[in-house]
Amino acid sequence: MKKKLICIVISVMTIAFALTLGAQVGGGDIVMKNSGGDATFSHERHTGKGLTCEQCHPEPYMMGEKHKTVTMKEMAQGASCGLCHNGKKTFTFKGNCTTCHKK
Fold first, then answer.
1. Mean pLDDT value across residues 79-95
2. Cβ–Cβ < 8 Å for 78, 12
3. Phi and psi dihedrals of 12, rounded to 5?
């Protein structure tokens, strides 16, 4: 009985550890080179707001090399970051340059 209880406890701990690892955010920080100052996208910051991977991938964001670079003008029209950062879903990127771009 004691041996069975120890096995159950170890199994539960192993599953909990595996779930914790699986919950870690993939991708980390993505730094996008930009003449106006590099912009850093934090996966952790966005998933901490309740977003799931599937809400952004594969549309509107392709992963890695496949993703298309967009201009600020395109973002103002709802492309890329502008899809959510429009002042309706969340804060607008307009006038908040230093939130993402670091010199």
1. 91
2. no
3. -60, -45
Cis geometry, peptide bond prior to residue 58 (ω within 30 degrees of 0): yes
The top-level CATH class assigned to 27-102 is alpha beta
- pTM above the 0.90 mark? no
CA 43 vs CA 25, 47, 95: distances in Å:
6, 6, 22
Block residue for tokens 């309706």: 88
Tokens of 101: 């771009």
As a three-state string, the secondary structure of 22-33 is HHCCCCCEEEEC
Backbone phi and psi for residue 102, each to the nearest 5 degrees, phi listed first = -115, 130
Per residue in 12-42, pLDDT (tens digit) is 565 544 444 444 567 788 888 888 889 988 8
Task: Quote the CA–CA distance of 99 and 88 in Å, as a whole number.
Answer: 17
